[in-house]
Amino acid sequence: MPIPHALRDRLTLPLIAAPMFLISGPELALACCRKGIVGSFPALNQRTSEGFEAWLQTMAAGLTALEEAAPDSPVAPYAVNLIVHPTNPRWQADLALCEKYRVPIVITSLGAASHVVETVHGYGGLVFHDVTNQKHARKAAEAGVDGIIAVAAGAGGHAGTTSPMVLVKEIREVFDGAIILAGCLSNGEDLLAAQAMGADLGYMGTRFINTRESLADSAYQTMIIEAVSGDIIHTPAVSGIPANFMRQSLEAAGYPMDRLNQPGAIDYGEKLKPIDDEAKAWKTVWSAGQGVSAIRDVVSVDDLVGRLADEYRAAMASLQERCFSG
């Protein structure tokens, strides 16, 4: 499936910088858009809808300035993540703001609502929805979304447990729109591999925590640099539903590590906590994906996207050399 027409001529790489709770804001999103990849942030990274509207105004002014400064360079659109779930009493008000400011891409989580699709399509926007399995992909397809984000094993945040090679294929069985793969993408080689598996776009979160434009503090970024894949623990203990967190931050917050490593040993339930409670927890317990193993520095978005582009092109050339021609 080709990349949606609205994105096709506006990207320098087939990549979305994922919206990360408490990490992504307008500065990071605009830096990504300037470099030709989709930037994003969660609406809930502002504590009120009024604050969220101020961010949308910042994005509108910032994108206009970028386009005027470099009219011949592609400026990518941006995305806003909405939690479409009863624990988020703001989602309908925030959706109305997305409509008012004509947000180009709305990424929905925890609920594929046809009302969201109808509203966003009404002003010409796109809706992507994140899922961890084929069952939820089928529901998203029925709701009419334009793209499905396949959140595979090893992704940061609320991740699934299915191999990306399997998950992409299972989603393609029930959906003919764009597939965006999330889970351990940290470099240009990973982005090319995602396309080889059948995804149309890559979805990269953890790698963008360690940029100068992110809202993460230096201790968080240092922990990512020092972490390896074995430090990532998949647990419902923090959010109420399974998510990936760094072992070091769980230990510092006092979680019983000997029991967290035993599936089912702690019954934290499968219900999402109220948004305010979750925000408090995520401030001290830090999420990341298994892709931390490939992250060893903190760089600007400009430098990171340039590096990713070089890696992507080099990986493509190397793969062509190694592929069998017969």
Largest sheet composition: 8 strands, parallel
What is the N-to-C order of secondary-structure elements (H for helix, E for strand)? HEHEHEHEHEHEHEHEHHEEHHHH
List low-pLDDT spans.
262-270
Counted by DSSP, the helix tally is 14
Strand order of the largest sheet: 1-8-7-6-5-4-3-2
Structural class computed from helices and strand pairing? alpha/beta
Percent helix among the residues? Answer: 40-55%
- Shape by Cα distribution: globular
Number of strands: 10
How far from one another are the termini? 26 Å
Rg, rounded, reads 19 Å
Mean pLDDT: 92
Beta-strand content bin: 5-15%
Could you walk me through the main structural features you see in this protein, from its secondary elements to its overall organization?
By secondary structure, this protein is α/β, with parallel strands linked by helices. Helices cover 42% and strands 14% of the residues. The chain contains 14 helices and 10 strands. An 8-stranded parallel sheet has the order 1-8-7-6-5-4-3-2. β9 and β10 form a beta hairpin. The protein starts with a helix and ends with a helix. 47% of the residues are buried.
